[in-house]
Every structure is written in structure tokens, then in C-alpha cells.
Amino acid sequence: MRMISVLAFLLMLMSIAVPDAVMSADEQAWRQRVSAAPPEMTSDDVSEEIRFGREVAARLIGRFGLHTSDQLTKYVNLVGHSLAAYSNRPELKYHFAVLNTSEINAYAAPGGYIFITKGAIDRMQDESELAGVIAHEMGHINGKHVVKELDIKASEGSAVSGLARLIGGGTESARLAFSKAVDQAMDTLFKTGYKREDEIQADKGSVMQCAVAGYDPAGLIRYFERISTAKGKSTEVLDKTHPAYDTRIILLKDTITVAAIDTAALKTHKDRFTEAMKTVK
Amino acid sequence: MKTIRIFISLALFLVWCLIALPASAQETYYVQSVKAKVLSAPSFKASVLGEASRGTRLSSIGRDGSWVKVSFYGKDGYVAAILLSVSPPMAKHTMIKAGDSEFQQGVRRRASTYTSAAAARGLAADDRRRLSGEDKLDYDGLERVEKYTVSDAELTKFMEGGKI
Amino acid sequence: MSLRMFNAAMAIVLIFIVMTGVSTADEFHYNNMLIGDRATGMGGAYAGVSDDPSGLYYNPAGIVYTTGRNLSASVNAYYNTSKEYKNVIGGNGWERKATSLLPNFFGIVQPLGKFKFGFSYAVPDSITEDQDQTFGGSLPTSLGSPAVRYTINFNNEDNTYLIGPSIAGELTSSLSAGLTLYMYHRSNQTILNQLIVLQDGRYEWSNQYIERVERGYKPILGVMWTPAEKLSIGVSLAKIMVYSSSVMSQTTIKDANAATPNDFTSIEVGDSTRKKYPYELRVGAGYFPSSSVLVSADAAYYTKVADPVNGDRVNVLNLAVGTEYFLSRSWALRGGVYSDMANTPKLDPSRTNQDEKIDLYGMSLSISNFSRNTSVTLGGTLTMGSGKAQILSGSTEIQKVDQAGWMMFLSSSYSY
Questions:
Q1: CB contact, 8 Å: C401 with chain B?
Q2: What ipTM goes with this model?
Q3: How many independent structural domains does chain B possess?
């Protein structure tokens, strides 16, 4: 009996002492039964996701402002929508815009809002690079990374109606929880970054989506190689919130090889890109 | 007699396990993208078996990295996983939108009620900081972004390689 | 016939083949009641799975792998058993029935920093046993004259309660450990009233009342090892340790051969000897081939106990095999088979007053419905077995016993 209690005590000590003891329920994802799988998104869930994403989008636009060039906006939208045809969330209407800042970054808000900064576009040299970045952001939305992390879903039994939103919807605590979630989303975008496996999934998704849409997925690699040498504060947020460039480039190259993508046969649309950029400044 | 009953039931149980286990690996997927190419191997170099349109139901026998192995008209085919989902594609979502001005007013009303109520309840410091405007909200800009569309004709022309 | 239909049909066939009764609590078995809604459906083969509140009882190390944030589960069960002792007195058999309706498990799991914390309540043993029979005719006795009337009223209530906290944490990415510390409480009341009226006018009457209250601890220490993807191996060790025990027995006998007709003998005995319980070592494996199928198998070994007061117990090995099969995202079937072997020694035809030895086998089946955060399960178990008993005190006669029982339960679990 004494031996058991000593053993138990030692085991407890061990579990506290082991520094990297992380709950790895993720590593045991095979334990999850079909019932626990993320339930099918209902229309109300999508409404809630969009309602949430709008708040994040409004803050992004408020922080940086929209770039005014109609030509550039049109171009980014055309590239974006041609990729959206190959998205696995046909219920979402994607929106694309350029943020007026020299910072180099791109942002996705749940519900289909994708933003690229002017600073990022200035560093691109062909359409496939732009497509790669958009596809990566789309990967976060398609993978529902923020929605899952912050558990954004319609509250059970509540009807999401325009009237309810006008009045302010829900109770005070629901509103507080909503605000808190928006803050957390902003933190993810500017401070902490997505989970590592979400970033990996988005990068892999970018390769596949570009390839399927006819774009050269190596565009994203060229873009990373170029901005990794950028000096100054322009990549500060991007660096803080994403894995290192070389790690990402290795993964992207690997994904292209494994999927046997013939990058030479896919389009970069360099001429069209250069043409579009001419009218912008 | 009773022992025999038990053995029979155990045997049946094991047989059931053997049948259920492999069969349970089947999963049904639906095509989400407008069109999805079905390839003969999990590689972009493989030949195209055909194309499945949005909503097509595909019965899968497993995953192979970024690909899903499906049964396509009797043959084994592969589809990029990013184009599939386990639930049927949902219709394009429409948000019931209130009129512009009403919406803005509602938003403003909500924000100010919240601020004063928060102040009254003496919220924690970081909540007050949050409300002070570190995050500016631009709903006008958001509306412009949401209203921006490209016509189907324009998009089709673009996707076919045309100029802007 | 689609695979799903085949599986459902198989399940029904299984019920009819092993159609028997269930055994409820008693001292002579260690696996009387299965605990927890998921574990019960799977025949108790749970040490290698244990990834929900039911795991707090079988292998607390498993709760590290609970998916979902906070979980709670509760089970309410109705039990019904009947034991038939053949050829006890003059060709007549004895029948003992037992029923019990109670909530027999409740558990919650919650993450706490790097660990998972749990709390549960379990009733591994609960019995209300009844026998009320009167026999007439000419029954053989050892009192020198046959009996014309024999009345027996037997009432036995035995309940064991476990309640306590659990904590579990990950040691490495493939190894976790957990500890449940239950408070153990057992209370048992037995009343045996017998009247024998002899042909020659004498009669013998005895009334025995035994009350036992035990208090103690039951720590359960568990580890869970994931040697490969989709395979999980669990080991747990437990032991009931009694720290206080009080037994009071009161026997009143009016002997047939008493000197004067109304001479009673009354004996009162009190005993605070703490009963020794065995070590319980449970080894189980869980195999998760897909997100809709789970198969598990357990072996539970109980060490032997030398107990001159209550009777020696031999070592016992119980086996269980269970499976969980999801027909769809919201419906799941669980089934299992298990053994509940007697812990009493084999009966010696030359000795008297020996404990009965009945080996039991059971099967369980349950169906669950899942919605977003909750699940409701309806299920049952059937057990049956046969063995030997020495019901009549002072006699070397051994009777054959058949036992059968069933249990139905309704449980729910909630994730939030």
C-alpha cells in the first residue's frame, strides 16, 4: 500500500517536472469519434462566422485604410475569385481588398474577407505570387482555423435575425464574449499568429489550390525568397506571426514535389501582372 | 450447452469485427469547387479520368496525403482534398442586411451603450483600453469592400487568360 | 443488404444467442456492475480506451485524451437477477431474486492547466436480494424427524459506494498517467429468518441479522501508452483499503432440541476486523481503426486473499471484449462480452458451510444518439452462469445453481 502511494506520488512529480508536457489531444486525433467531429456547419453558424469576420475586417480596414486604386482592386478581385472557384466553401462569398500600408503582409478574416497590403503587392513580380498569397489566406478560411480556435458558432436555439443584430443581440455576457473573441482574432493576426499546423495546412493548401486553378505554386516560394531579404520594419508583423521563411519554403517545395506538380506547365501571367501594376501608383 | 452459446456469440462477434472494421473506413465526400478533376494517380502528372461538378457525391476508400482516393465510375481515382468536404455544398449564404443607415445607427448605438454600461460597471483596464479606440472600426470601408463585385463574364474571360 | 443493416441484424442475433440474466452485486464476484455509459455498452473492456468520464473508474490515465472541454456523464440503471438453487430441500429448489434501481455512475472531467481533473461517483455493487419461500410436505432433515413446513425469509442489502477526485497528466507524447482516489463505503444488511416445523411437533426457529459497515479508500493508479497510431494500451492498479470496519451480528435461535420448549439462545457478535480486498490489475488495449469503429479488450486480474473470517478468495481473471460502431454521425451501437468469475474456492464435497461458486458470463448492448453537445444512451446487459453452492448449513450436500439476470440503463453525457 505504501509502495503504491510512493509510486503515485513519483508519477505525479514526473508529470509536473517534465517541462514539455503538452496536452497532445491533437496528436491523438485518431481517438476522436465521428460524433465529435466538427458538426456540419449550419446556416446559422455561417451567419455567425460572417458576423464575426466582418468585425475583424472592419478593424483591419480601420487600422490601415483601403487603397484607392480601382484598377488594383479589380485585378486583385479577379485573381481572388478565379481561385475561389476552387475553394471548398461555396457557401461563402469571398471579398478581396488592398490595404493602404507599406507593411508586407496579408490577412484573412473568417467569413471570406481577404486583404493584401500594398507593401506586399509592391514586392510581387507576377500573378502567381499574388495567387499564392491569396490562396494561403483562403486556406485559413477554408480550414476554418479561427472559427475552430475561437469556437465561433451560432448559440443553440437562437435565431440570428437582422432585427436581433440591430438591437445588439444576445445578453451582455454574449456581447462581451463576442468582443473578446474579436480581440483574440486580432491578436492572432498581429501578435501570436495561427497555430503552427494551421500555417502548414494553409501553405500546403495554397500549393494545391494554385495548381488546380492553373497557377504556378512556386510563385509563393519566389515571393518568400524575395521578402526574406527585406530590411526594416515592413515585415515585422509577418515575421512575428508566421514560421521562418526557409522552413516554409522547404515545405512548399516538398509539397510541389510530392504532388508531382509540373510548375513549368502552369501559369505565372507575368505580363498581365506587369500591365495591371503599370496603372497603379 | 451454455458454453456453446457463449462460444458461438463470441465467434459471431469476432466475425462481425472482421467485417465491420475494414468496411467502416468508407467515407463519403462531396465536390465543393465548381469543377474538380479526377486523376488516375495522386500526382498532377497523372492522366485525367474525368471531371466532377459541384455537389457530386464520391465514395472514398482512403486518403493519401493531400489527395482523396475515390471510386469514379468503377475506377480508382484521386481528387485534391482541398476541393472536397464530407458534407454536401451549402447554398451561397445570404446575410439579411439591414438598410445602410439603420445599420450604422444601430452599430453606433450599440457601441455607446456598451461604453457607458462598461464604465458604470468599472470594467478591467484592458477592456477600457480596448474601447478607447486602439482598434478603429471602418464600417464604411467594409461596406465598400462587400459591395465590390466582378461580373461573371469578366471573371470567365479572366480565367481563360484574357487581359483585364 | 447494406453493411449497416447487416450490422444491426447481427446485433439482434447476438442478443438471442446469449439470452440470460444479469448478476448484481455480491461478495463472490468482482465484476458485478459495469460502470459508465460507454464502458458498460462495451462490456467493461475499457482500460485501453478510457477517454471520457467512464475512464475515471477504469483507467484515469485515459482522461488526458478526452476530446472536448468539459464532460459529464451520468447513468441510471435498473437491475434484476434471479438465482435458482436446485434440489435444496426434498427436491425443491430455492429461488433468490434481486432488484436494484439506482444511479450508478456520475463523472465529470475538466482541464486544469496542464492536467485533467476529474470527479466521479460510482456504485460498483448494489443488491437488494430477496427470498420468501415456504415449503410443505415431508422434507428430510437432520433433526430426527422430517419437516412438514419450512419457511425461509432472506433479505440481503449490500451497497458499495465510491466517490472521489482524479487527476491525470501527460508524461510524454505517448505516455500518460492518472490517479483516482476514491473514498470507499460499503454497507451491508442481511436478515435471515427460518422456521422449520417438524412432524413430531417440535420446531426450530432462527433469526440472524448481520450489519456491516466498511469505510476505506480505493486508489486507482493508471498509465496509458500509445505504442502506435490508433493503438492504445492501458494498465491500471487498484485496491480497496479498509480503514474502519464494524460488523455486528445478532443471532437468535430456538433450537428444536432445546431443553425447555421456549428456550432461546441469543448471540451477539461484534467484529472490527478490517476485511482485506485483493489487488486489481487491469490491462487493456484499444484499437481505433477509423473514426467510426473502436475495438477493445481487457483482462482484469484479482489477487487471492486469505481471509479466515469472511472466507478465502482465490485469484480471478476476468476478460472482456467490446466494440463501438457508429452507424452515422449521430447514432452509435456498442456491444461487448465479458466474464464475471467467482472469487470463491472450488467446493470440496467433504466440507460444509462453503461459499457458493458461480461463474458468470455476460454480454452488453447499447445504442446512443449524439447531438451537438450531448448524447443519450439506452442499453442493457444480460448475464448468466451456473455453479455450485452449499446452501444448507452443516450439510455437505452441494446444490447446482443457475443464475440469470439483466440490467437496463439510461445514461447521458454532455460536453461543453
A1: no
A2: 0.75
A3: 1
